[in-house]
Write a structure and sequence with these properties.
This protein has 254 residues and is mainly alpha-helical. It folds into three domains: 54 residues, no CATH class; 101 residues; 35 residues, no CATH class. It contains ten helices and two strands, in the order H-H-H-H-H-H-H-H-H-E-E-H. The longest helix has 37 residues. It is rod-shaped and about 130 Å long.
Length: 254
């Protein structure tokens, strides 16, 4: 309305001041174009654009008591607003500016420095490092809200990049570990520790070799821990098996 030179039709007027009827009609046309159709029918009898604007203020802003209640609710929401883990900086900044705009429409002006401090105070623990750096290295009273959002977004992208690199490195280390040690439950590989346990000890074996993919062991120098004889392991010991059979027969007789 100010751009078309008709704002004077809805502003406070001096006593006895007259408004150009043509400007008044244009102001009414602008107002009726911007309000819902049902409200046009309700205000069709108004001939003064100031009356129409007054009705809109009462309908949407409410009387002073209702406006004060709405403003108190918005202030509580602003004070309790916190950025959640997993929420992006852009999403939270949009939510914060939306509440600030609603408060501004009710007559409460939230200054730039207040928005910046509210933004920094609402960050989660994962942003503690960058928040502390901003507070120590910059003058918050001179920082713009968009600048603070930009610095937080840059830190957010750095965190995402670090997490992706750690995930890739962790996967490579796991794959390297599995390739080196193999699996203890399948034949796809064998543990170095297991191989060492099978061949350690003096006289237990003559080492190992691979021919055609099979392991060959020479038992001629293998000493049994059960009977002390050569050429077999303890679990293959015939004396141990014979004693076990005798014990079973005695137990059966008893």
């Amino acid at each position: 309305m100010d751009a078309y030179g008709i704002l004077e039709t809805v502003e406070p007027r001096m006593l006895g001041a007259e408004i150009d009827p043509e400007k008044s009609k244009r102001a009414l046309a602008f107002l009726f174009q911007e309000i819902p159709e049902e409200m046009v029918l309700q205000m069709a009898s108004y001939t003064d654009p100031k009356q129409v604007l007054g009705g809109l203020k009462t309908r949407y802003l409410g009387v002073d008591r209702l406006r004060s209640a709405r403003l108190a609710t918005l202030k509580r929401e602003l004070e309790g607003l916190k950025m959640k883990e997993g929420e992006s900086v852009d999403e939270f900044a949009t939510k914060l500016t939306g509440l600030a705009s609603k408060a501004r429409s009710l007559g409460y002006e939230l200054e730039e420095v207040d928005l910046v401090k509210r933004l920094l105070d609402s960050m989660p623990m994962s942003f503690l490092q960058i928040v502390a750096s901003i507070e120590q290295c910059f003058v918050l009273d001179e920082m713009l809200f968009d600048e603070a959002v930009g610095r937080l977004k840059a830190y957010e992208e750095r965190i995402k990049g670090t997490d992706r690199m750690e995930g890739i490195q962790g996967g490579l280390l796991l794959a390297s570990h599995e390739k080196t040690h193999g699996c203890n439950h399948c034949s796809g590989g064998s543990s170095n520790q297991d191989d060492y346990g099978h061949d350690r000890g003096k006289g237990r074996g003559s080492g190992k070799s691979r021919e055609g993919g099979e392991r060959i062991r020479d038992k001629s120098r293998v000493k049994c821990y059960g009977c002390g004889e050569l050429s077999h392991y303890r679990h293959e010991c015939p004396t141990r098996k014979k004693n076990a059979n005798l014990n079973e027969e005695e137990h059966a007789l008893l």
